[in-house]
Specification:
The complex is a heterodimer. By secondary structure, chain A is mainly α. Among the domains of chain A are: 1-142, no CATH class; 318-449, no CATH class. Helix content of chain A is 74%, strand content 0%. Chain A has 13 helices and no strands. The two termini of chain A are 16 Å apart. Chain B is an alpha/beta fold. Chain B has 2 domains: 5-75, 2-Layer Sandwich (Translation Initiation Factor IF3); 88-173, 2-Layer Sandwich (Translation Initiation Factor IF3), CATH 3.30.110. In chain B, 29% of the residues lie in helices and 27% in strands. Chain B contains 7 helices and 8 strands. A 4-stranded mixed beta sheet of chain B has the order 1-2-4-3. Chain B has a 4-stranded mixed beta sheet with strand order 5-6-8-7. Chain B is elongated and about 50 Å long. The chains are: A mainly alpha, B alpha/beta.
Chain lengths: 449, 175
């Protein structure tokens, strides 16, 4: 065991992710994409991919480059591979956006953007998956939270492969009949693998460890935790493998997806039980802002599931799928992401700056890098905006959604300003900010050991 | 017999003000059985000798021009990975701990802060014992940089992690 040091490029991933989040919120505030445009319109597809690749996937990749080593107690396989992966992903996203604009007839350049995007995104995610899988393979044990991440990595690979098939067919590079069928009907599978398998399942795994760590709660690896893992994996397998087979054999895709949802729902019930247990069994009575905000995000996950059940019961899931996706993406995934980012940036910055002088000089505490009361107000506005946006979508009130998007944008900008202040150590008293030997952090790149 | 050496030149990293510990450990992890490491550094990397010694490598150092050093690390085939505490043969060479810390109820990263503060006070060769509620993943590279050796593992209850730290050549680690 030789421990884990700082991941060099994680802050760059976070910065690129946050820029994408702001861009997506600006698009929503400017009525670009759903609900002003149709849910399958190119504009909406641009918005969706800026959110899921630009914001959530870059955030997740940056976080995993730092935390997979922590989960398996083994150093990252390669710090050097992280940068080409980031460049490839950002360029791939740009290519994808250009491809959608081409689809919409807004740009008429003869450049085959979709195939370029497919190659770049496949390469970028392949570099990430390779780096993380090699890290896991070198570890002595792979605890359950890391196994969740493992399933997440398989899911992102499947999501990207499906997406690449869509791009090649839409870009006219391929006309193989089964690929055309997948492109015509495979969107729900692509979305379930991406939002469910990659983003949600990975977030679940990481949350087990992060919540336990920050609240001094016991590490959970009990029967219920394993049940959540196996049921979730089974649900994803049914959705992706079963779904693809259903499309290719012209079977009943909705039934397959319903079976996958039922299995996934059971997994979420076990997960919810575990998380409640973590909050209740914590030794730290007064929890920090990140853990309080994570609880709100977890409530949004529960609310998203409840909304799906309600819409299934009443009929109208198809009509309101936009509201469900908005609530789960902005309330659950983005809410959890921003909450954990708030703590992770402070912790990593503290470790980078003061690690070398700990015990040798008086150093600030991690909490001295943040001002929770100030950040708390921005988070409150953020979640109010998520609620308002969801209600506006359900009520079919696009103008209301636009106002909610503006509030979301303002709140996010406020949170980002706090993150930049933390990184710059702006809230640490000037007198003790840089004791002799401390390492001044750069905004976008860490001094990796 | 070591037949081949993989060369790692960390001089550019050191000249750039960087810290090559991770690169060195990565290179060690990638060695094939029987392979050794030829390390080039801008100073004699004394702290590494104990760290890699515990991983089963002997060393042979040779000064180069301009105060730079070449060190050959050879696998000796008797790696002693930090074993779980309780393996009597492992702990018998170390003196009894001069100080005990119980950091299980502390908020992170306070356990790390207290351990590093204690290591600055103890004398070379003395041992610090600390109880934690998880593996101190971010502490270990810092201990290595400061030239301390450690052994750690979970106790039988599966929730308490006990680490023993022997104070090493801390003064030279800052070189």
């Amino acid at each position: 065991m030789i421990g884990v040091s700082l991941s060099r490029w994680t802050m760059s991933y976070f910065a690129a992710a946050l820029v994408s989040l702001l861009a997506a919120e600006i698009m929503m505030a400017a009525s670009c994409g759903f609900p002003s445009a149709a849910i399958a319109a190119p504009e909406t597809l641009i918005l969706v991919h800026v959110v899921v690749i630009g914001w959530l996937s870059l955030l997740m990749c940056g976080a995993l480059l730092q935390f997979v080593p922590v989960l398996v107690a083994h150093p990252l396989y390669s710090n050097a591979l992280a940068l080409p992966a980031l460049v490839s992903l950002v360029a791939g996203l740009a290519g994808l956006i250009a491809g959608f604009l081409q689809l919409d007839g807004r740009i008429d350049a003869g450049i085959p953007f979709f195939p370029f995007a497919a190659v770049l995104l496949v390469s970028g995610f392949a570099l990430i998956v390779w780096n993380l899988v090699r890290t896991m393979m070198a570890a002595q044990t792979i605890p359950l939270p890391a196994q969740f991440v493992g399933v997440g990595l398989v899911s992102v690979a499947l999501t990207v492969v499906l997406g690449a098939i869509f791009s090649l067919v839409l870009g006219g590079a391929v006309d193989y009949a089964p690929f055309a069928s997948l492109t015509a009907s495979g969107l729900p599978i692509h979305a379930v693998a991406g939002l469910g398998g990659w983003l949600t399942f990975t977030a679940m795994g990481v949350s087990y460890r992060l919540l336990a760590m920050f609240m001094l709660a016991p590490e959970l690896e009990r029967t219920g935790t394993r049940a959540a893992f196996y049921l979730g994996t089974a649900g994803l397998a049914v959705a992706v493998v079963g779904g693809v087979l259903a499309i290719l054999s012209e079977g009943n895709l909705p039934i397959v997806l319903l079976a996958a949802f039922a299995t996934g729902l059971l997994a979420l019930v076990f997960y919810g039980r575990d998380i409640l247990h973590l909050y209740r069994a914590r030794k730290r009575r007064t929890i920090e802002l990140n853990s309080r905000i994570s609880a709100v995000a977890l409530v949004c996950l529960g609310a998203s599931v409840a909304l799906i059940l309600l819409l299934l019961a009443l009929g109208g899931l198809d009509e309101h799928i936009g509201a469900v996706i908005f609530l789960s993406v902005f309330g659950w995934l983005s809410g959890l992401g921003l909450a954990q980012l708030y703590k992770i940036v402070a912790f990593l910055t503290w470790l980078e700056c003061y690690g070398p002088v700990l015990g040798k000089a008086v150093t600030p505490r991690v909490q001295d890098l943040v001002v929770e009361t100030r950040a708390g107000k921005w988070f409150l506005l953020y979640f109010l905006a998520v609620c308002a946006g969801t209600v506006a979508l359900l009520a079919g009130f696009p103008m209301g959604f636009r106002f909610a998007a503006v509030a979301l944008l303002v709140a996010t900008a406020g949170i980002i300003a706090q993150l930049v202040r933390t990184r710059r150590l702006a809230d640490v008293k000037a007198a003790g900010r840089f004791p002799q030997g401390a390492q001044r952090p750069r905004l976008l790149r860490s001094h990796a050991a | 017999m070591t037949s081949t050496f993989v060369e790692l030149d960390v001089r550019p990293i050191l000249r750039g003000g960087g810290e090559p510990f991770q690169e060195i450990m990565d290179a060690i992890a990638k060695l094939q059985p029987g392979q050794g490491l030829r390390l080039l550094a801008t100073f004699k990397p004394v702290p590494l000798f104990s760290v890699l010694g515990a991983k089963g490598f002997s060393h042979e150092d040779k000064p180069l021009a301009d105060g730079e050093w070449e060190v050959l690390f050879r696998p000796t085939g008797d790696a002693s990975e930090p074993a779980p505490v309780g393996a009597a043969s492992e702990t018998s060479e170390w003196p009894d701990p001069a100080q005990h810390l119980d950091n299980r109820e502390l908020d992170p990263p306070e356990p790390m802060v207290r351990i590093l503060a204690a290591t600055e006070v103890l004398k070379q060769g003395e041992v610090l014992s600390a109880l934690l509620c998880r593996e101190p993943i971010f502490l270990l590279p810092e201990l290595a940089k400061r030239g301390h050796a450690w052994r750690g593992g979970f106790e039988a209850d599966g929730t308490t992690y006990k680490i023993l730290i022997r104070i090493g050549v801390a003064g030279q680690a800052a070189a």
